[in-house]
Amino acid sequence: MTSTVHPETRRLTPTDAGTVEAARAARAARAARSSRVSSTVVTIGVVSLLTDISSESVAAILPLYLTTALGMTTLAYGFVDGLMQGATALVRIGGGWAADRGDHPKWVAFLGYGLSALTRAGLLLTTGFAAITSLVALDRLGKGVRTSPRDAMIAASSTPRNLGRSFGVHRMLDTVGAAVGPLLAFVVLWLLPDGYHTVFVISFGAAVIGLAVLGLLVPDVRPRKASWLATHQTRAERSLPSCKGCSCSDGAVPTLTERPFSWRFLAEPGLRRLLVVAGALGLLTIGDGFIYLSLQARDGFATQWFPLLYVGTNVAYMLLAVPAGRLADRVGRARVFVWGHAMLAAAYVCAAFGGVSGVTTLAALALLGAFYAATDGVLAAVVGQSVAPQVRASAIGTAQTVVAVGRMAASAAFGVLWYSLGRQPAIVCVAMLLAVAVPVSWFALRRSAPAADDEACATAVDVEAGTTAP
Q1: CA 238, chain centre distance (Å)
Q2: What's the mean pLDDT when you consider all of the chain?
Q3: How far is Cα 183 from Cα 71, in angstroms, rounded to an integer?
Q4: Tens digits of per-residue pLDDT, 167-221?
Q5: What is the pTM of this model?
Q6: DSSP state letter for 73
Q7: What is the pLDDT of residue 247?
Q8: DSSP structural state of residue 266
Q9: How crowded is residue 114: how many other Cβ atoms within 10 Å of its Cβ?
Q10: DSSP 443
Q11: Which is nearest to 289 in space by CA: 69, 49, 131, 65?
Q12: Burial of 338 (0-12, 13-18, 19+ CB in 10 A)
């Protein structure tokens, strides 16, 4: 009787073994390349780091300045805080639309960063509450203009497999600046009690350097053009026939009219559901300043330590941004985004019920940082993977605007709630509502994670392969 050996169990010859090892090595190399974060993403992160040093060094003391130095009530602060968030929200869609329409997100972002740099120069020349408040609002407008184009460049410069990690790396670098800025302002004012002018000079210098890095070192990423090239001009390289009726063979580059911008992406059910959930959760996200003021009132922090609360939150955000992005890539970005709000509810509880030891204050800051790590960049990643490249900036801007408008309303409403009910009852009320909203939101988005993320990683095209670091 002749025995047969199953192909999978037969002994491999040295040649076969070498071939298998080579194939495994090639697959490992491809996986390593796809998991690397683009150098473009890192450079954009450096720009954000410098800009946040500039902006947060000025903004860190704003809540205490308004409520203590100027004697404003929490009701008035809630209005001002909501106005600042609203000024950013109203122009995010416009910035995304301009980036998609012109297919030059870098220069739209450059305009936003430049506008913020000009406000730093204005702070050096003006005094008075009205003038400074106007400049801060103008700075928030610049932030709104640049945010969507910047996130669109990050998405275009990343592979679907590492999209969450790329946003995590950017947010980590961004948060380094957000932590250094308040700390720098604290040190300056500690050494020079009247050193506000010195802080403004440092803020202006950091803004100008960040603007120069963006203009000189960040490539002009064009998502629409890259998407067209990936689906047309690479067919010959893959030994595929030319598309019927297109210009694959002559190497033409698409014009703006060949891929017209359209708002029809808003009609997609999955994106609509995500926007509704994000907006609802935004309505239960009060301003950080309220949490810090509650912590200060409960724990008796001295006034001069108040800016360090911002530093604590930003340090936690910085440490958790990349792990949260990697977790989102692995288990589902929509899942991490929704359940990240559970961290916020826990931070509310710490702010409302903590003792005087300071331990619960540190816990609240850590939970608040974890909330931002699980939601900020992850939301942009969820939206970025869900829409076509030619509308990516507009879609991200729309989602961020929905969230910002919700938070604007939340800040104004919570100011009224605090004024009417008191500190602890107001925070407990919002925490209870958020605890109910999180599982309901997850039920609404359960189809989006993790299967949708995995499918996107397997099928989406890396339209910016040329910008990925080797």
Answers
A1: 36
A2: 76
A3: 24
A4: 889 988 988 888 888 888 888 878 877 777 788 888 899 999 999 999 999 988 8
A5: 0.71
A6: -
A7: 43
A8: G
A9: 17
A10: H
A11: 65
A12: buried
